[in-house]
Amino acid sequence: MPKVLIADKMSKKAKKIFSEKGLDVDVKTGLEKDELLSIIGKYDGVVVRSSTKITEKILKQAENLKIVGRAGIGVDNIDVDSATANGVVVMNTPFGNAITTAEHAIALMLGLMRNLPQANTSTHDGKWEKSKYMGQEVTGKVLGIIGCGNIGSIVADRAKGLRMRVISYDPFLTPERANILGVKKVELDELLQQADIISLHVPMTEQTKNILNKKTFGKCKKGVRIINCARGGLIDEKALIDAIEDGIVDGAAIDVYEVEPAKESILFGNDKIICTPHLGASTLEAQENVAIQIAEQMSDYLIEGAVTNALNMPSISADEAPILGPFVKLSEQLGLFAGQLMLSNFNKIEIEYVGTISDFNCAPITSAAVSGILKPSLSDINMVNAPSIAREKGITISEVKKDESSAYESYIKVTLHTKKDSFSIGGTVFSDGNPRIVQINGINLEAELNRNMLYVTNKDLPGLIGHLGSILGDEGINIASFNLGRNAPLKDAMALIGVDSEINSNVMENVKKLESIVTVNNLIFNIK
After folding, report:
1. Could you tell me if 114 and 196 lie in one domain?
2. I want to staple 102 with a disulfide (CB 3.0 to 4.6 A). Which of 154, 217, 335, 486 is the partner?
3. Confidence band, pLDDT 50/70/90 cuts, at residue 380
4. What is the CATH number of the domain that holds 138?
5. Is 415 contained in some domain?
6. Which one from 49, 165, 278, 417 is the annotated catalytic residue?
């Protein structure tokens, strides 16, 4: 039974869902780093919010960990690269608090334009300062959204309802999507020059860090107002203070900070800045939604292999998982076959999908094939980290899909390319759900995989079958399957022999001595 740790405070519904799905769940919040290190090794999954940090050190200690779930969007507290390197899936819930965060941005914008926090404090103090807190309408103003993804697009929708004109800088926003949202796509400099209000909705990356800084503030329309409900570090806080003092920025509403929890900040005490304590996702509805979603996503992965909202692995829906599962197994075995024959020097992996399988999401199947190919030379490899490791090694990965009829309803072929040569192996899944090899380097055969297999290529001459059988028999090795293929009589041929025990060095040496043998390989597969 998979074991899950809930390491941060969240809705009790998360624990209930894990339990109802049949998982063993512990709730241990507020753990110190050393405490987490001492227990993390026994868990298959851990779910966090923003407090618990999942570091490289913790991931290396987590020998059984398969998944880290973030009940929320940001994963700043999770070392995603280390998780990937250690074969751990990282999931978040990008939609669970999108509405809540977008509404908070709109609330801050309206509060900022009408000086609501300051007016509230003044009135509670018994003052009546109507003229001091003269505000501005948002109707007709230009809202510049930096990042028009899940949250940014909701902000755009709400802003249009307030009769604002919305422009957006987002390199990933397509013209078609911009038209659907009713947003004008612009470059960053154009947004800075036109926007009356700028709202940030991007993740914190090397590219977005301090995206609003001294230089970019200098390009802004005078009197601009700034909203940040996304991530601390997107704004150079010192540059923001200077821009306010210089009259470039007329006000800001900040919900996130460079250092959190923000007990001290240069932003505090400035009458032009509204500060809230990272409340973007803090509604009852959002907290419940993200807890429910992450519990369901993690349960589906640990029980069924379904992958939803993963940051470092292709998605597999719960409906797809049982269909794709046998093909994931097939592609890994095909890759393992090819990888044992070509341990190095290949620079391209090509995976061809023919027939019905080509209609599906093939990304996880590709990941499994790459994992199989690299496994003979890299022990700590799996579907999660294989594609990134291949890219680091300069290996190109390509998919080819062909929706055409063949001898099989679905067919997968894996080809490894070197600068001078290539090796290909094709397979399918039969009705019993088990993988079969049906072609090697263009020669047809039909072979079920055994844990131990002898693979030989040879010239098609009489007597080879008998010689191979005798060599194996003399060593007391029982033959489970004997599969043959050739391209023409007395031409190139091959044999793939499944055996019930390990193939020793005597067998390998004696087979190599046979007159017709070209190559001989001892292959081992992870057959369960």
Report:
1. yes
2. 154
3. low
4. 3.40.50.720
5. yes
6. 278
